[in-house]
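Q: For a teaching session next week I want to show students how multiple molecules come together into a single three-dimensional assembly. I've collected the sequence lines for a complex. Could you give me the predicted structure tokens for the whole thing so I can convert them for display?
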Amino acid sequence: MTADILARNNVTVTGRGTQPMLFAHGFGCDQTMWRFVAPAFEEDYRVVLFDYVGSGRSDLGAYDPERYGSLEGYAQDVLDVCERLDLHEVVFVGHSVSSMIGALAAREAPDRFAHLIMIGPSPCYLNDGDYAGGFDRADLEGLLDLMDKNYIGWANFLAPVVMKNEERPGLTRELEESFCSTDPVAARRFAEATFFSDNRADLAEVPVPALVLQCSEDAIAPDAVGDYVHRHLPRSTFHHLAATGHCPHMSHPEETIGAMKAYLADAGLPA
Amino acid sequence: MDPLLDTAPCGFFSVNDDGTVVRANATLRNYLGAETLVGHHVDALLSRGAKIFYQTHVFPLLRVEGEVNEVYLSLRTAGGDDLPVLLNATRHTGNDGAVNDAVVVPMRRRNQFESELLQAKHAAEEASRARARFLSVLSHDLRAPLSAINLAAHMLAEEALGPVTDAQRRDLDRIRESSAYVLRLVTDLLNFSRVDAGRVTVRVRATALSDVLDRATDIVEPLAAEAGVAFIRTPQAATGAVLADPERLQQVLLNLLTNAVKFTDPGGHIRVETEETDDLVRLHVRDTGRGIAPEEIERVFEPFVQLAQPDDAPRDGAGLGLAISRELVRAMGGDLTVESVLGEGSSFTIALPAAPAGEPAVS
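A: Of course. Below is the structure for the complete assembly, covering every listed component.
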């Protein structure tokens, strides 16, 4: 089974260092989102990129709706990749929901991880009493409606064209488009797992040191949420970026790289 | 703002990577009922669900690929209403850095239409799941008593409980045949409900075609001989390895071969042959049977559809065999197709990926 994981998760390994830096993409995209940041660490680290099953160029044949109905299933992907490549002392870099996925993986197998770098984390997107996650259930239903309508064209028109490719029947579900071309069923399930999860209670159980990178004016993970993560993660460092939005590694890669390197240097790691 | 843009019948705005709106035309301001948009964050233009979609899909796509097309988004008006729009955007780099230009066209009526389509799609999917659940429960509940009836009739006929008369034995045989027939139907239903619900697991691995064909031949050759039909297996049909689940492949092959026997008149023949390309193996099951009418050929893989039976033949099966077979082959990464000429015969083709050279094949 292990031989298949590299293909299953479309794992790519680059870099000249020995300590692994594992980049985990967020909901909606794939490993391509790291193209502006990951190269900056190739000199000092063994850089590992992958796609969660159901995203990017992962093996859709390995998709199991039950496993990927919760973030634990995605955390298992992270652990599978770590085990397959025999990674230890991993610096895990997760964007958005992958911050919590990394936290769950680190809670499960703390010995694998040296540090977590969380970009725009949120343990719970839903408002709940005094906790302001940022969204009500109706907002998230609105997101699912948007996804349905944007993916419906994909599902109805593109997929049959691919499936008619009789010369390559084994590739009927492999899409040629890479970025954001996620299977609609898997994408919806990922959205539900992401936005309806409540992992606040898990934060206290993460024993690995972590950097929380909080963006300015982030509508998805507002300041109060980043602050909550920092306060409840036992060994966390908080850094507020000037970068606005939710994707600083794409909109402001230099500032993001700088913040990561400063943290790594403070931790005595190559930077 | 260019006067032409201000009067264009679509909204236009530019946003930088900070998310700040740097230009917006009058049409967009009118759409949103806003006096000014420049200087606001793009989030202020979007409904709450759309904020997430913009950050997780639209902006990353623009950043990496430089454009997005035909994205459905929901804007938020100054009055708090949602305005569904279709958005196209491109990215370019000017003196002031990267800017993303976007055009939006309202689509209220089309949005309503698509919502109804989606609702119908979801209802159909739920109905399909409910049908699969019903079939699965029904099939499970029927199998156990049917098996018990069959076993009891068998034991009685074998005189396990004492001697039986010839007349009693004939009736017991009828009970066994009928219960076995219904059991086959129920098994088909159960298999179909599993396939339909996506609960069939296939374990694809390099599979020696000759072994699968050998086992199928052992079963079908006597049936063909009894029906007066010649069974021909061409020499090249025994070569090669495919990526398949050997048990599922055998199930599909047996279904095709027994169909061929059933629909081929005495004196006809069934021919099994293969055709290989670099990355694909096609296994053909050809018969000289009555063939399929052009108007029926598209429907043969639909569930609960039966081909026209021979005139004197009893109705046999629930019309699920080919539907199950095609889904199984597709689950293995291949496809099952058919060509036919009415009155001349049919040719069913299983296409599967060839196993990589050097990979040991299982039997």
